């Protein structure tokens, strides 16, 4: 059974940092591109970042470029999101999601349960 | 990059068919076949319903179908059921900023 479990969320002050993790199991993690997608309270979905299976290709939304860093450790079946210079508008539930096909822009077929990040003083 | 345009809400009675539209531009929906649709129930993670415009993941009911015409993609749900009541989001690859989502559509089953 495919499982994605996020962790690392919490309350952080503006300007602070946080590192999110996503533990993957039930599939060959090293074969799939992965995404981070976030959802502010009561709002819609927003794509944050994508990473290819071997980390050769990395992409960011303009809203987080230069502040967030996506990475993965295929040996540990884990995906990460290092978030620096956090702002109030980064407050959201952060989901990790698996890309279901070989094309990194295809749909996300499995999602974690999400981890809440709250940026507030 | 502006979000793709979806109706804020749609509704239908059990057994009926409804269609949710997702309008973009030639730089996203119209230019690429990377349109996906997600269903999200309150407090839950999104679920993939359609990928690459019209492909249905295994396990998703064949009552759900996707299509595209020009810059507008559509999700059609036939034989509407009470459990279909949820928020629906479209997304697309975009040449300007990689991935864009629609604002979401709340489906109400009357």
Write the layout of secondary structure elements.
The complex is a heterodimer of chains A (121) and B (110).
Chain A lengths: L2 E5 L2 E3 L5 E8 L8 E6 L5 E7 L6 E3 L7 E6 L4 E6 L8 E8 L8 E4 L3 E5 L2
Chain B lengths: L8 E4 L5 E6 L11 E6 L6 E4 L13 E6 L2 E6 L8 E9 L3 E4 L3 E5 L1
Parallel strand pairs in B: 1-9
Antiparallel strand pairs in B: 2-6, 3-4, 3-7, 5-6, 7-8, 7-9
Keywords:
heterodimer, A: 121 residues, mainly beta, 7-stranded mixed β-sheet, 4-stranded antiparallel β-sheet, 50% strand, B: 110 residues, 6-stranded mixed β-sheet, 3-stranded antiparallel β-sheet
Distance between the termini of chain B: 35 Å
Order of helices and strands of chain B: EEEEEEEEE
The total of beta strands of chain B comes to 9
Q: Can you count the beta strands of chain A?
A: 11
For the largest beta-sheet of chain A, the strand count, sense and barrel status come to: 7 strands, mixed
Structural class of chain B: mainly beta
Largest sheet of chain B: 6 strands, mixed
User: Which sequence of SSEs, written as H and E, runs from N to C of chain A?
Assistant: EEEEEEEEEEE
Radius of gyration of chain A: 13 Å
Q: How much helicity do the residues of chain B have?
A: under 10%
Class by alpha and beta content of chain A: mainly beta
* pLDDT averaged residue by residue of chain A: 97
Instruction: Give the overall form of chain B.
Output: globular
Please tell me how large the radius of gyration of chain B is.
13 Å
